[in-house]
């Protein structure tokens, strides 16, 4: 079997497995997995910029929140129905990611990290500042009646699981497709040696811009769907912590692998879920994981798997 | 109160902020300048300084001044020791790679913050000032009989606040003397300019790095000990000093000490005055945008002249 | 027809004149060697031609169009290819992907594959097509650089010290390759190995202290006293 077919079988298999799992999982884990799939979609988006293009952003919460608030505010204040609201979330994500990219991509390395961090922080503070509309930290609830998409009630657990699975499948397959296309392969080359890519005649700025917009738009889609499926929009999703999470998930699962973001999100979600039952200081786990991963396993779980066993893994 | 006295009061409060900010930011700037490490956990070293100060002051008993004096010595040293340990176990193993050390210090931030939450708890706790005499400040105004002095109600400060400003100034002069007049300062500057060359001249670069990281954290802790009688010690108090130090260091020019101090005074003073006109949130939005824009369009800082 | 020309091209680094007022013309189809002592400004001159370095003064024309203001990637698209002096291959990618990146800018799919195979074959690396570039020997990495240049099918191929670190047999292979290219591709070759220059170049330009010292056929340059002085430091 060729590498392309094998990877299609592997990722298709994951989606089939996730589809089958809903019939056997107990309620609690059923709900968790729906949440994990949406968050993993966010991580997939993050991975396109960090894992494949080599640009470490500390401000992706801005994109997640752009999708979430683009969706939520239009429902809340303009009376949108879910479908146009989701579109509004996506468009907000595209605009915000393009805007930030045009500024931040003028820098590189450490400066890029700080610039993304600062603009995301400004976005978070802006949400707080316009508390009259956004209800700030407290956030607002999207009522059940406003969460009916084409006659399907998204607050129902089964429907919600399906919706999350569809989003995740789209994001995963988009990523898989992207990295096997010339565009994606050029991004990997930019990560490895940008100057060389430029001297092969590629417009590396345009490639990085494209990567950041795709990455930001997927993140925004995840944010919009998250708000819609779980019925809540709040400023905490725009905070620094939600910029750190996708970095953590991707590092754990394996940066620059298609499967990594899902695996990292799954593990970290349950690790934090488990430890928050024991202590309020559950973010300690995240801190320790960040340090240990950076020190001992910068490739992450899937990266190690690729290095040791399956070299064809995309 | 009239506008003039009000601005004077705001400037005095701003000067206290500026003094503590200068200490914290110089610590961050030193670490970046010499080691090229962006320490995201810097605010947590600040927080640790305050928490340890509370712990020391609380366990000493007797006159508040005794506990405070002990805290002033013990807290910065303890924090510096923790920082040196973190440098040797984590940063050194990453070979000081800029991007990976940022990720590791984010992890360190959560570890310090959450361990503090588990041990010290979620409460804010005060430390008593060693002395706290209230000082009224006179104002001149043109009255019926020409210029005359009077004491507007509410215009005043405390002896402790003035002492904070003085102490911070003294420490900054000490740091400057250390960097410019001593052998260890020369070694640090040499390492900053060219790490490989320093290695070639048998400078123990790893020891210098550990020392600098400890010194940077110790300065943040010292700033925190000075401020804790005015504010209170809390496990989340590190976020604001981190953000403000970033602003100061970036505006002052990355790694430039005089620029950093200048920017700290500028930001500290304007923080007090700006909050008279704007809401604190809007002031923070403008400040973060300013930092972002400076990095994008003028990476050498507003006051700096050399490339970062 | 003149493919490349520079007029008054200069580069000053903090007061140091790396390249000073260079007028340089390269006719289409010629193999031109650029030689000179270390620090003569060869890499700086070539860096300005392909857009890696911004000139302090002067103009550059390629194919009769002024390209002075174009960014590097747009110049490459007009038909330049540049191989790096310090090997700059994608170490963690296979040799195949390294060359494919060069080919894919203008070709897709099976056509690109064919070009990749051909380029690797010409430098003798076809049997190492699936090896990671970082695992190749230094000499093979240099050859991979050249394959990346060939895969772009450039009108002007700029080679910056391509034989540095190659073995005798590899140098012989490279010389044969260059002869094969002659007439079809214009080549600008920075080279220290004088026997390679003598065997391959149509004409030679000598750079010293950032300025053109002499220009002529390999034989003329070989006889030129000023050139010998510049190289050996004697009259």
| Overall pLDDT of chain B | 82
Shape of chain B: globular
Using the coordinates shown, work out and report the CATH topology of chain B: ABC transporter involved in vitamin B12 uptake, BtuC
Biggest pleated-sheet summary of chain B = 2 strands, antiparallel
Helix- and strand-based class of chain B?
mainly alpha
* Secondary-structure element series of chain B: HHHHEEEEHHHHHHH
- At the first level of CATH, the class of chain B is Mainly Alpha
- Compressed to H and E, one letter per element, the order of chain A equals HHHHHHEEEHHHEHHHH
State the helicity of chain B in percent bands.
over 70%
User: Largest beta sheet of chain B: what is the strand line-up?
Assistant: 1-4
User: Are there runs of chain B of 5+ residues with pLDDT below 50, and where?
Assistant: none
Largest interface: A-B, 39 and 41 residues
Instruction: Compute the number of helices of chain B.
Output: 11
- Sequence of strands across the biggest β-sheet of chain A: 1-4
Task: Give the overall silhouette of chain A.
Answer: globular
- How many domains make up the coordinates of chain A? 1
Q: Indicate the radius of gyration of chain B in whole angstroms.
A: 20 Å
Oligomer designation: heterotrimer
Number of helices of chain A: 13
Strand tally of chain B: 4
Fold and architecture overview:
- The complex is a heterotrimer of chains A (314), B (308) and C (235).
- Chain A is mostly helical and 314 residues long.
- Chain A is built from 13 helices and 4 strands.
- In chain A, helix 2 packs parallel to helix 7 (157-180), helix 2 crosses helix 11 (260-276) and helix 3 crosses helix 9.
- The longest helix of chain A has 27 residues, at 204-230.
- Chain B has a two-stranded antiparallel sheet with strand order 1-4. In chain B, strands 2-3 form a two-stranded antiparallel ribbon.
- In chain B, a hairpin with a 2-residue loop joins strand 2 (139-143) and strand 3.
- Chain B is globular, with a radius of gyration of 20 Å.
- Helix content of chain C is 37%, strand content 27%.
- Chains in contact: A-B, A-C.
- Chains A and B meet through helix 5, helix 10 and helix 12 of A and helix 4, helix 9 and helix 11 of B.
């Amino acid at each position: 079997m060729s590498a392309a077919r094998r990877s299609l079988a592997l990722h298709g298999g994951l989606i089939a497995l996730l589809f089958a799992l809903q019939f056997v999982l107990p309620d609690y884990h059923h709900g968790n997995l729906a949440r994990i799939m949406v968050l993993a979609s966010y991580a997939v988006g993050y991975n396109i910029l960090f894992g494949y293009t080599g640009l470490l952003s500390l401000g992706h919460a801005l994109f997640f929140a752009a999708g979430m608030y683009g969706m939520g505010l239009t429902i809340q204040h303009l009376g949108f129905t879910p479908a146009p609201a989701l579109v509004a979330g996506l468009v907000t994500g595209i605009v915000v990611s393009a805007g930030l990219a045009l500024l931040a991509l003028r820098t590189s390395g450490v400066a890029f990290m700080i610039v993304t961090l600062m603009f995301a922080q400004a976005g978070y503070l802006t949400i707080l500042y316009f508390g009259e509309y956004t209800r700030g930290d407290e956030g607002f609830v999207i009522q059940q009646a406003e969460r009916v998409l084409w006659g399907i009630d998204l607050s129902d657990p089964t429907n919600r699981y399906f919706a999350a699975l569809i989003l995740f499948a789209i994001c995963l397959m988009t990523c898989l497709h992207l990295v096997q296309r010339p565009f994606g392969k050029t991004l990997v080359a930019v990560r490895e040696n940008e100057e060389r890519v430029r001297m092969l005649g590629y417009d590396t700025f345009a490639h990085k811009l494209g990567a950041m917009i795709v990455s930001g738009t997927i993140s925004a889609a995840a944010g919009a769907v998250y708000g819609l499926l779980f019925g809540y929009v709040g400023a905490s999703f725009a905070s620094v912590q939600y910029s750190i999470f996708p970095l953590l998930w991707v590092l754990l699962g394996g940066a620059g692998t298609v499967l990594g973001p899902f695996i990292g999100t799954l593990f970290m979600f349950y690790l934090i879920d488990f430890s928050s039952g024991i202590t309020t200081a559950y973010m300690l786990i995240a801190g320790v994981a960040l340090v240990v991963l950076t020190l001992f396993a910068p490739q992450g779980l899937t990266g190690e798997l690729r290095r040791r066993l399956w070299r064809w893994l995309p | 109160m009239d506008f003039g006295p009000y601005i004077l009061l705001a400037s005095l409060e701003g000067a206290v902020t500026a003094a503590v900010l200068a200490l914290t930011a110089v610590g961050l700037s030193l670490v970046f300048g010499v080691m090229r490490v962006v320490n995201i956990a810097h605010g947590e070293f600040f927080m640790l300084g305050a928490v340890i100060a509370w712990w020391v002051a609380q366990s000493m008993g007797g006159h508040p001044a005794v506990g405070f004096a002990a805290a002033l010595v013990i807290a910065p040293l303890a924090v510096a020791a923790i920082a040196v340990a973190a440098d040797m176990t984590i940063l050194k193993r990453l070979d000081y790679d800029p991007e990976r050390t940022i990720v590791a210090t984010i992890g360190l931030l959560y570890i310090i913050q959450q361990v503090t939450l588990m041990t010290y708890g979620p409460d804010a706790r005060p430390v008593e000032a060693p002395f706290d005499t209230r000082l009224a400040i006179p104002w001149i105004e043109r009255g019926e009989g020409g210029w005359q002095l009077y004491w507007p109600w509410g215009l005043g400060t405390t002896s402790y606040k003035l002492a904070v400003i003085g102490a911070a100034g003294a420490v900054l002069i000490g740091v400057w003397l250390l960097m410019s007049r001593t052998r260890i300062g020369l070694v640090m500057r040499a390492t900053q300019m060219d790490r490989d060359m320093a290695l070639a001249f048998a400078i123990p670069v790893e020891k210098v790095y550990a020392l600098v990281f400890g010194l940077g954290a110790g300065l943040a802790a010292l700033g925190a000990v000075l401020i804790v009688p005015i504010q209170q010690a809390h496990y989340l108090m590190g976020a604001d000093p981190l953000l403000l130090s970033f602003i100061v260091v970036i505006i002052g020019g990355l790694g430039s000490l005089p620029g950093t101090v200048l920017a700290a005074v500028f930001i500290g003073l304007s923080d007090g005055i700006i909050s008279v006109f704007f809401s604190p949130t809007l002031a923070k939005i403008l400040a973060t945008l300013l930092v972002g824009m400076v990095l994008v369009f003028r990476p050498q800082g507003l006051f700096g002249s050399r490339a970062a | 027809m003149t493919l490349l020309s520079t007029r008054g091209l200069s580069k000053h680094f903090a007061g140091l004149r790396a390249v000073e007022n260079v007028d340089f013309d390269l006719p289409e189809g010629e193999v031109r060697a650029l030689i000179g002592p270390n620090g003569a400004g060869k890499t700086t001159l070539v860096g300005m031609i392909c857009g890696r370095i911004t000139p302090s003064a002067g103009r550059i024309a390629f194919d009769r169009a002024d390209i002075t203001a174009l960014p590097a990637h747009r110049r490459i698209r007009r038909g330049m290819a540049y191989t790096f002096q310090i090997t700059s291959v994608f170490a963690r990618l296979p040799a195949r992907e390294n060359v494919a990146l060069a080919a894919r800018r203008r070709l897709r799919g099976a056509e690109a594959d064919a070009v990749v195979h051909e380029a690797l074959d010409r430098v003798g690396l076809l049997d190492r097509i699936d090896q990671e570039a970082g695992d190749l020997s230094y000499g093979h990495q240099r050859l991979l650089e050249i394959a990346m240049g060939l895969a772009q099918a450039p009108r002007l191929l700029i080679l910056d010290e391509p034989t540095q670190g190659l073995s005798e047999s590899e140098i012989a292979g490279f010389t044969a390759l260059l002869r094969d290219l002659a007439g079809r591709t214009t080549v600008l070759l920075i080279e220290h190995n004088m026997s390679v220059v003598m065997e391959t170049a149509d004409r030679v330009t000598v750079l010293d202290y950032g300025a053109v010292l002499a220009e002529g056929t390999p034989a003329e340059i070989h006889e030129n006293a000023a050139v010998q002085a510049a190289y050996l430091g004697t009259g």
